[in-house]
TrEMBL record:
Keywords: Signal. It comes from Nitratireductor basaltis. InterPro entries: LpqE-like (IPR007410), Lxx211020-like (IPR058248), PCuAC_sf (IPR036182), UCP037139 (IPR021174), YcnI-copper_dom (IPR012533), YcnI-like_sf (IPR038507). Coiled coil: none annotated. This is YncI copper-binding domain-containing protein. It comes from the Bacteria. Residues 1-24 form the signal peptide.
Length: 325
């Protein structure tokens, strides 16, 4: 009996160590991606032997191109550029150089805290390829280096400092990252240099004449673009609307000009703010179904997608107030 208890305790201890070890590594939140636009989110779970992390250095792997880092409050960003090992074709143009190293500096991520550092770019490698994002945490008295790559057939968990890795997988639609296809998922869809993410529409009540929908638009290119038209076979017209408070009343109005998507920035739509309005719909949107939508950009051209319909109360906690025209 006593031996069984000791064995069980040892097994639990081993499992606990394995679990905490997995969470102790710096890693990517999403570890698989199809070729096309990708947001690499690096999770930093601790400091260096108890010390706060003051800088995070990431070496960009070959096959992840046109990279732009996201600022973190309280940190500054420095970038090193250089030539790629090969030339890639991105949105119809050849790319042979770009960001090679990104470093966030001047912050203080305490050992007891957790944070994420984000890089947006284009996955340009072949399915089956593994990309390693070598990462170094700099602290007051030393570093934590996550730069080890496993040998063929080796379990990465056997390494003391495994580099965060991304495995390239085949996409569901080989044309999706060129602006065709009609994905209904929340993964990014590329139309030229515009990444369309997190599309969704809200279920409507019977007799409701207009329906709301939301998408996020990120311009990963070097020039501003404009959303010049929207259309759907299920509505008389589709417009971009803005909700705002005027004299203590929440009102809604269509944008008077085309929506500009600045280079290197993201336009985020959310309930209670910027959104899409489907006017004079043929049938109310039903939860579990999808709504077709065609977007046309001045530079990126046309792209078709499907917006999954979510429950009528989805997003109400984010500012989905009643409004009037």
């Amino acid at each position: 009996m006593h031996r069984k208890l000791i064995a069980a305790a040892a097994a639990c201890t081993t499992a606990f160590i394995a679990t905490t070890s997995a969470f102790a590594h710096v890693s990517l939140v999403e570890r698989e991606a199809a070729p096309g636009s990708f947001k690499a989110v690096l999770a930093i779970p601790h400091g260096c032997e108890g010390e706060a992390t003051n800088s995070v250095e990431v070496r960009i792997p070959e096959g992840f191109v046109s990279v732009k880092p996201m600022p973190n409050a309280g940190w500054t960003i420095s970038i090193q550029t250089g030539d790629y090992d090969q030339t890639y074709t991105v949105h119809g143009r050849e790319v042979s150089s770009g960001v090679k190293v990104v470093k966030w500096e001047g912050g203080a991520l305490e050992n007891a805290h957790y944070d994420e550092f984000v890089l947006r770019g284009i996955v340009a490698g072949e399915p089956g390829t593994v990309l390693y994002f070598d990462t170094i945490q700099h602290c007051a008295s030393g570093t934590e280096e996550w730069v080890e790559h496993p040998a063929e057939g080796q379990d990465p968990h056997e390494l003391e400092g495994p580099a965060p890795s991304l495995t390239i997988v085949a996409g569901n639609d080989s044309h999706a990252h060129h602006g065709h296809g009609a994905p209904g998922a929340e993964a990014g869809l590329l139309a030229g240099s515009i990444s369309i993410e997190e599309p969704w529409a809200r279920a409507m009540l019977p007799g409701q004449p207009a329906g709301g929908a939301w998408i996020n638009l990120t311009n990963i290119g070097e020039e501003d673009d404009r959303l010049i038209s929207l259309s759907s076979p299920v509505a008389e017209k589709v417009e971009v609307h803005m909700m705002e408070v005027v004299e203590d009343v929440m009102t809604m109005r269509p944008l008077e000009e085309a929506l500009v998507v600045p280079a290197g920035e993201t336009i985020t739509m959310h309930p209670g703010g910027l959104h899409l309005m489907f006017m004079q719909v043929t049938e109310p949107f039903k939860e579990g179904e999808s709504v077709p939508l065609t977007l046309e950009f001045e530079k990126a051209g046309k792209v078709e997608l499907e917006l999954p319909v979510k429950p009528a109360n989805h997003g109400r906690g984010s500012g989905g107030h009643d409004h009037k025209h």
